[in-house]
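If your schedule permits, I should be very grateful for your opinion on a structural question. Please examine both parts with care and let me know of anything in them that strikes you as inconsistent. The record follows directly beneath this note:
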Amino acid sequence: MTTRVLLPSLLLVFGAWVQPSQAAMTPKQQETVRAEVSRAVKAFIAACEQVDVARALAFEADVPEFLYADADGSMYEYPGFRELVTRSFAASSSQKVITRREKILVLAPDLVLYAWNGALEMTPKGGTTVHVEPYSLTLLMRKVAGAWRITYQHESGQVPPGGSPAPTAPKE
């Protein structure tokens, strides 16, 4: 089974497993969590649009269970992911994130599944802007030391003919 099917399926099973925790939360508590996560994701997107690697990586949790699944099916633990993002941002002069839809599923008071869909425009230094649409992002976010952090991230997008909009890290 491909990682494009396997990983989202595993997240859905995980979501069903922790669903009872959601029932223990009031609708107001769930809405508070959604608002906190929405603000965190908006700040994460702003850091990405400003091509600020340090600020963007601050939203990722450097924890042993961190996992990033790239659109090409590659998977990275935090060190490889950090290298990939650093190289990608260094090669970019600008990024624009266009939100079409988002869904925030509260799994527990400190655990959220976030799904986003839209488009991404990246302009490499000295290059032509690449428009990737549809572009989707799935995040598993956990509250770590009082702040919402990404512990799992999966990106998928329809890269236009001609290749990837950003450099990739060496395969692990």
About this structure: The radius of gyration is 16 Å. Residues 165-172 have pLDDT under 50 and may be disordered. The CA atoms of residues 50 and 94 lie 7 Å apart. Strands lie at 67-69, 75-76, 92-108, 111-124, 130-144, 147-157.
